[in-house]
Amino acid sequence: MAGWTDSPYRQVVKKLCPEIICFSELISVDAIVHDNKKTLNMLKSGKSEFPLIVQLFGKNPDFFVEAGKKLEKMGAAGIDINMGCPAKKVTKASYGSALLKNTPLAFEIVKKLSKSLKIPVSVKIRIGYDKYDEKSFINFVKSLEKAGAKAITIHGRTKNQEFSGKADWEPIYTAKKHLKIPVIGNGDIDSDEAARKRLKDPKSQAILDGIMIGRAAFGNPWILAQTWAKLHNKKVTPAPSFHKKIPLIIAHFKLSLKIHGETLGLMEMKKHLSTYLKGFENSSKFRKEIMESKDPKAVLDILKNL
Predict the structure, then answer these.
(1) d(Cα 151, Cα 58) in Å, to the nearest integer?
(2) How far is it, in rounded angstroms, from Cα 67 to Cα 28?
(3) Backbone phi, then psi, for 33, in 5-degree steps?
(4) Taking Cα atoms as reference points, which of 259, 256, 245, 260 lies closest to residue 299?
(5) CA–CA dist 13, 54 (Å, integer)
(6) CATH, residue 214
(7) pLDDT digits (tens, 9 = 90+) for 236-285
């Protein structure tokens, strides 16, 4: 997710559970094609993060091809085309979930990119733009499959819902019944038990091929390891107490400073620290101190003294 799933965070996730498959932040194909320095820095990854799926957004099919070829050479395990992001600044430019309304362009992007690469191309979508229409939705996902998509991740909300209301998983199960390629479900997974229940449709017995977790992992990367264990019938280790979480939080902080530099690294970590430091006595006081600090060493001292 943009601004969250950067290299330091992905490395933390893989430390907790090496089997987890990580997706990159949302990356602009336009920026890759034009060799934007900030974007190229976002693509730097540690060995532990692989196999890494790079998530791209844009609207120019040729730019997708050029960016995809660069990423393939860089060692990406796959390319995921984002057709689900509901952010206004993304959809205004006809990117993200705006492609749900421009289906010919959506299919052209998938077809051109999948034919140009050896690595698999997947697509992330929502169940509709302003509403869910089963017939249109099924035609859409089947056409994506025909165009060359090797997997589809479906978020159970429309674009207009953004993240409001509850995710509707019935369309996701319906898609699974109509597709031969893997279908991954996404939306409102906030525990390993919720993931277990959502993996299988209790009505039709359709079984999804995977679960994607986003917002619930903010400040809680342990949920990813717990979910993997639950879905693979392994023993689920409860999240550690806050006191025992601190070493990993500090490791994440130091990794961010090392990879991004002290100024950017501190700025990027503030949102992570705000979510990590919730739910214990005087947490608001410590979060305020951290948010106001411009000194990485001072923030590190706060974390060590927690």
Answers:
(1) 19
(2) 9
(3) -60, -35
(4) 256
(5) 16
(6) 3.20.20.70
(7) 999 899 889 999 999 999 999 999 999 999 999 999 999 999 877 778 88
